[in-house]
Design a protein that fits this description.
By secondary structure, the chain is an alpha+beta fold. It contains twelve helices and 15 strands. The protein folds into two domains: 3-186, 2-Layer Sandwich (Chloramphenicol Acetyltransferase); 193-441, Chloramphenicol Acetyltransferase (2-Layer Sandwich), CATH 3.30.559.30. The longest helix has 20 residues, at 192-211.
Length: 449
């Protein structure tokens, strides 16, 4: 039987105020609302021997003071539209969970699940939930979970870097905080320069929305309840194959995977060209490299995958993706208005609910020498697919993620079985593996589309 106590931790930090959400915040907020989830980020980690509760309280205090997004709560108007409110100071709770006779790692995992499964009060609650698991009073694990308005994948890496860069004596930050915090981002986005960026992006989107086929999927004859399914493919061979193809073509591994997804879509749905909303990290833009708040947005990418070798498709994809990334910075409300207008003028609904997200940060390109075809062949039988969950809460129609794990390639697929059958969800990942492994073994391999 675990026992839970709480240590109250006060904090203060630079910057406060209220204002509009930034574009990146509004994009992830829309996803959180549509998926009825906080899309929580975080985990449970073992602590170094000798870590004290005071150490963990200091870490929590540092995080809350350092990062404005962790001191941000929402205020809603009569229509439910949120604005952000950043506090200059406050107090939060550090849970202390005594494992007793239980395995501390298992207790930490239970705490993580509880943190993830408990609904957030966005107006009253701080975004970061943190706990320390102890065994006989000795800290063994830390659990930290926050909702997705705090950060994205690359922002999480900034959080860890800032923690590691603290002064070992005073605990002070090793560098000044970034200037373009969310409120400042929102102010720039409302400026003439920000409006020009938005309008440029909308021109790009509109040209593509008029050109693409209206439908992404032919429909599913296998409606399931629960309706929304998630599956996972682990493929060491695909991990090596993607690195080999990247080295051969001069593309990065992200472009190779996006090309493979385009081929898999065309094979699975029979609809060409493949149209994908790629999740783009806008951290290449001035001032956004080191911010913690979410800056990811999606950009429409039209992939011509038919009648060509896979290396040629990679080349085409790299060109299209480079252009798409340029236009992945815009007002999400403006995009919704544009989409509604083009649908009215075309006289048909447009399905743009197909997404690709390369989540790799730490393990993006692997290490060591370029793999050989023989190494790929040796691992070809080692892949495995499994279903992770089925749920009533909605996913997008189709969303493929590349997970950030070492020593292999792990893909997850989330989908709506009323639009994409479970068999097609699975086939999409297996087709990505098939086309990349095939192209690694035969540089002249065609896409089969």
């Amino acid at each position: 039987m675990t026992a839970v106590t709480r240590i109250m931790v006060s904090f203060q930090g630079e910057g406060s105020g209220a204002g509009e959400l930034s574009w990146g915040q509004r994009e992830i907020w829309a996803a959180m609302r549509s998926q009825q989830s906080a899309l929580p980020v975080g985990g449970c980690l073992p602590l170094p021997q000798g870590t004290t509760l005071d150490d963990m309280a200091a870490e929590l205090r540092f995080n809350m003071g350092r990062h404005q997004s962790m001191r941000t709560r929402l205020c809603f108007d009569a229509d439910g539209r949120p604005t952000q409110v950043i506090a200059a100071s406050g107090e939060t709770a550090l849970e202390v969970v005594e494992a007793g006779a239980d395995d501390p790692a298992e207790v930490g995992e239970r705490v993580r699940r509880r943190f993830c499964d408990t609904a957030y009060d966005y107006a009253a609650e701080w975004p970061l939930r943190m706990a320390v698991v102890t065994s006989a009073g000795v800290p063994t694990h830390v659990v930290a979970v926050f909702h997705h308005l705090v950060t994205d994948g690359f922002g999480s890496r900034v959080i860890m870097s800032d923690l590691a860069g603290r002064d070992p004596v005073t605990g002070a930050a090793g560098s000044p905080p970034p200037l373009l915090q969310p409120l400042e981002q929102a102010r720039w986005q409302a400026s003439p320069a920000g409006l020009r960026q938005h309008e440029m992006s909308m021109r790009h989107w509109e040209g593509l929305l008029w050109a693409i086929p209206a439908r992404r999927f032919p429909g599913s004859a296998d409606h399931r309840e629960p309706r929304y399914w998630e599956g996972e493919l682990t493929s060491p061979a695909m991990g090596l194959a993607v690195r080999l193809i990247a080295a051969r073509t001069g593309a990065d591994t992200g472009a190779v995977l996006l090309a493979a997804f385009g081929v898999a879509l065309a094979r699975t749905t029979g609809i060409s060209p493949a149209v994908v909303r790629a999740v783009v990290s806008n951290r290449f833009r001035p001032g956004l490299a080191d911010v913690v708040s979410p800056v990811n947005q999606t950009s429409l990418c039209v992939l011509d995958v038919a009648g060509a070798g896979f290396d040629e498709v990679v080349r085409r994809t790299r060109q299209r993706a480079t252009a798409a990334y340029k236009y992945a910075y815009y007002d999400p409300d403006g995009l919704a208005e544009l989409l509604a207008r083009v649908e009215r003028e075309r006289g048909e609904p447009l399905d743009v609910g197909c997404f690709f997200n390369d989540r790799r940060v730490r393990f993006r390109d692997g290490s060591g020498p370029v793999p050989t075809a023989e190494q790929v062949r040796e691992l070809a039988a080692d892949s495995g697919f499994r279903w992770l969950r089925q749920q009533k809460e909605p996913f997008e129609r189709l969303f493929v993620h590349v997970e950030d794990v070492p020593d292999s390639l792990v893909l997850t697929v989330c989908g709506d079985t009323w639009h994409v059958s479970p068999a097609d969800l699975r086939s999409c990942l297996l087709a990505m593996e098939s086309v990349t492994v095939g192209a690694a073994l035969d540089p002249a391999a065609c896409t089969g589309v």
